[in-house]
Amino acid sequence: MKKYFYIGCILIILFEAASVFFILPMPGSQEMESIGFAYFLFRWKWVFRIAGIALMLLGAKAAWEHSRILSIGLLIVTLATMYMSNFRMKADRMFYEPEVVNMVGKEDNIVDENKLVLGVVHNEEAAAYPINYLAYHHKIHDTIGGRPFMATYCSVCRTGRIFEPIVEGHKENFRLVGMDHYNAMFEDQTTKSWWRQESGEAVAGKLKGQTLPEYPSVQTTLKEWLVLYPNSLIFQPDSAFQSEYDSLVDFETGMRKGRLERRDTASWQEKSWIAGIEIDDDAKAYDWNELVEKQIIHDVIGFHPIILFLADDSTSLFAYIRTSEVQQFSIQNDTLSDGSAKYNLLGFPIGSRVEPLKHIQVSQEYWHSWKTFHPETMK
Asked: Alpha carbon of 352 to those of 227, 328, 339, 342, 355: distances in Å?
């Protein structure tokens, strides 16, 4: 009978280890197509645990009589594995969302204006979320223009997205559950489906295949954002997480040395920065080094002529659809000109009545992230 105790312990140890291995950045785990298996383990977790505990109880007496030292040692390992899996190594126990979202105007802001932010506008209300804070929290639930939204960021993919947390017509709450292919995943409270941060798509669970509505957003310095939206609200750091913020202070500049969040300064390496654009079913990545050198790139994606450019700070990123392929722009002092009209960084005309430029979403990402989630991408 003692074998049942040992089998039960091993079953729980293997289950708990596997349940975190496939959704955390363990060596080799994020290169596997394992999301289905990881969700299977999650969905049936209590079956595995109850089966393991039942086997342990069935053989406990015999195992104790056979070897007390072995029984105690194996029990300690089992309990330690359960503790680590369910407390120390749970994503939402490592990265917390702020309990109070403190948004203030420019006059009360304490955030360095040279910091990068993820900016969003809705119903003429603007909000900015500093990336080094958002990168720790991974998500911040907030309201703008009378509508709920969720600002998200995955530092391992370098992806910032803002979604409307509406699922099947109802406002939903999400928690950070782990990652897949190095991209953060969120779990909705109602159906326990898992949603990918990079695209807002449900990749496992009852709602698999559904997608969260996305708000257009801009990555820019806070200084540039406040020039464009002087009345914007700005997310303020929560003092409870100051040490976590400090650990990411060099993230946005690409100076971190860790395996997951470093930067390859050479082009088209796994951790190289790119600017990615997706229009309809077409996707294209642009080398960040080339973009910094040229500042402005004209191109055609599918049937859409586009312009991609950086502000004069070589950091704030924008993209628009051009009226035609022959329309060519230059940029000086953060003003775009096509020779006949001038536009500000938001694509609005300056001193003329021409139509504003149509905004398209552009993202600064790691090359490994963009090519993983856009396998047909051009570059």
From this structure: 20, 18, 12, 8, 9
Pairing assessment for the beta strands 342-343 and 335-337 based on DSSP bridges: antiparallel
Q: What is the DSSP string of 281-348?
A: TEEEEEEHHHHHHHSEEEEEETTEEEEEEE-TTS--EEEEE-SSTT---EEETTEEE-SS-EE-TTS-
Q: Write b or e for each residue in 313-342: b if 16 or more Cβ atoms lie within 10 A of its Cβ, otherwise e.
A: eebbbbbbbbeeeebebebeebebebeebb
Q: Coil, strand, or helix at residue 44?
A: coil
- Cα gap 36→189, rounded to integer Å: 19
Give 86's contacts (C-beta < 8 A, 6+ positions apart): 16
- Expressed in percent and rounded to 5, the helix, strand and coil fractions of the chain are 30, 30, 35
Distance CA 35, CA 208 (A): 12
Chain centroid to CA 264: how far? Answer: 19
Please give the Cα distance from 364 to 182 (Å, whole number): 16
Give the model confidence (pLDDT) of 302-322 as tens digits.
999 999 999 999 999 999 999
Dump pLDDT digits (tens) for 31-51: 999 999 999 999 999 999 999
CA distances from 379 to 34, 162, 262, 307 (A): 28, 25, 22, 15
How far apart CA 110 and CA 59 sit, in angstroms, is 61
> Closest Cα partner for 135 from 154, 111, 115, 116?
154
End-to-end CA distance of the chain: 62
In this prediction, residue 14 carries a pLDDT of 96
Residue type, 42: F
95 closest CA partner among 31, 173, 155: 155
